[in-house]
Each structure stands twice: as C-alpha cells, then as structure tokens.
Amino acid sequence: MQVFGVVLFTAIVGGLLSLALLWVILYLAYKYKVFDPIGERHVHTVDVPRLGGLAFVPAILMSFGLAVVCAPLLGAGSAFEGVDARTTWLVVAALVLMYIQGAADDLKNLDYKLKFLCQFLSAGILVYAGVRVDDFMGLFGFDALPLWASIVFSFSVVVFIINALNLIDGIDGLSSGLIAVFSCLFGGLFIVSRDVVSLCLAVGAVGVVVPFYIFNVFGSSARRTKIFMGDCGSQSLGLLMAYFALRGWSYDTMPYNPLVYGFAILLVPSFDVVRVMAGRILRGNHPFHADKTHIHHKFLALGFSHRAARGAIIAMALCFYFLTIWLDRAVGVTWMVVVDVAVWCGLQSLLNFWLRQKGSTYFVEARKSNRKTT
Q1: Distance between CA 210 and CA 212 in Å, rounded?
Q2: Is the model's pLDDT at 9 over the cut of 90?
C-alpha cells in the first residue's frame, strides 16, 4: 500500500506534465508550420504536426524523478530502497538516446542508417545494463541460454519491438491506445514482482499518453488541437515496451511463465510487422519500404472507421493476450506459440477473404508498391 501513493503520484504528474508540454508543442508547431507530410501512404488529408512524442520522455522522466524525491512525503520512504541505480541510469540513458534520435528524425528526416545505428546503441545499452532474456523456459526444447545467445536474442528483441511499435502507428489513437493497454498489463506484472522502478515507468507511460490520445483522436486541425506522436514518440515508447518485456521475461520467481507474459502483451504488433515485412520482401521491395499493408489498412479497406479499426485492433490484442496466457497453462509454451501463429494466419486469411469479397483495392495497391527504398 505504501507504493500506491507513489504510483498514483507518478501517473498524475506525468499526465499533467504531458498536457502542459503538448500545449506548448501544438502552439509552436502550428505557428512555424512543422507538419507531417501528406502523401499516398498517409491516411490524413490536412496539415497536422507530428511532434507529440516530444512530450513523452521528458514527462515520464520528470514524473519518475519527482516520485523518487517525494516518496518520503507520500508515506513511502522505503519504496525505492535496494533499487539498482546503475541499471536505472542505463535505462534512462537508452531512453534519452532514442528520444534524441526520434526528435531529430521528426524535425530533419534522418537517414535510415543513422536511425538504425541509434536503435542498435540503445539496445546495446539495455543489454549492457543486464536487461536481457537468459532462459527460454522450455520453448521449442530450449531452456537456459549461453551468454552470447542471450545477448544476441535480447538485442534483436529490442530493435524488433521498437520498429513494431513504430510501424503500427498509422491511424489516430492506435499506437497510444495500444501502449496504454500494454503499460497497464506490464504494470500488473511489476506489482506482482514488486519492481517499483518499472512500475513507476509503466504508470508514467500511461499518464503521458492519455492527454496525447485526447488531442490525437478528438483534436481538430482547424482548432489547432490535433497532433501525431511521430517517430520520437513511437520509437521512445517502443524502447520502453521492449525494456518492460525483457524485464518481465527475466523474473524467475513468478507463479507463471514470465516469457509468455511479455510475449502475449506485444503479440499483435509483433506478428503484424513480421507479416508486413515478409510481404514486402516477397514483392521485391525493401522490408522498410512504406506502404499500406498493415493490419489497420486492412480494416480501413473493409470500410471500418478509424474509431472502429482502432477498437477492433486493441480488442484483438487483448484477446490474443488472454488466449496466450490460457494456452501456456493448457498446452505448454511451445504449442502456445504454434497455436498463436495458426490463429493469426487464420485471422489474416479471413480478412483477406472479406477484402476480396468486397472487391477492395487493397491487394492492387499492395502490388503497385513495387519500388525499392533506400
């Protein structure tokens, strides 16, 4: 119960700081006309700034820092005792690096090689901090991993999740809605494991995306209140979700398989980015060539509104989460993955069938995207 006051404080302060920063960013972005380009692969048709993510990391870190300072005043003086300061500072360093890269990209459109370099460096910092998976817990017959395999796998997971959360950010409220849900689910894990630092970061993430969600979904370009999160927001929060997943997978005292818990939470964006990139490669494109083949594009092509598509995908993520947790207990971790993949493939086949029945141009547009990017 001591921690409850700190957690509530972090969420409220994070939300208020995010709200204040977003108002400042909105004013400056509309004043100086810093807008997201309108193009074929974008679903918006009016000028909207894409700098909302600039508010996230400062608000999260300031709310977390204030929570640490104010913990004694909140009756939780011992809440942060025994915290590994080295790991915490390294996580902050990785988050700040990803934030700086994302901010520069939103303002100057960085070369993709430089973006990947920053992602690799941030992933390396997390792994160096000891935030990694060292046990597959029976998945496909593998248990404890040798050090080199643990480092390579954890490094790859961080880069993969950053890009998965970045690439699914395609319609209003989808990325922020998913991140709010993911952070709440990870927060439950951190409560059980008594990981106060990760719990504060998780509730801080929820606090900062709520004001953004309101501006993003309900704002209006005419009233100068609409904003996108941009790469700064999606990549920074993607790194944070990767940290949460690796942190959760590292627990060995849970009454359930922690690897399953982290896998289940991020399943939908992870599966979708694999499907999209595989499709691009099969069509002869660069895997990072922008197109309109993500899961939200399928729902929009079926006639769903942005609100309906967003709700359907968030509901899908929750359904896969509960299905995965149940499958782990019912058939074990290996068959859980097999069934999850089969269900995802079946769902995609069903959506494709509906698209063809509707006579949608979705597949025509996908085939037309045959130029390579650099």
Answers
A1: 5
A2: yes
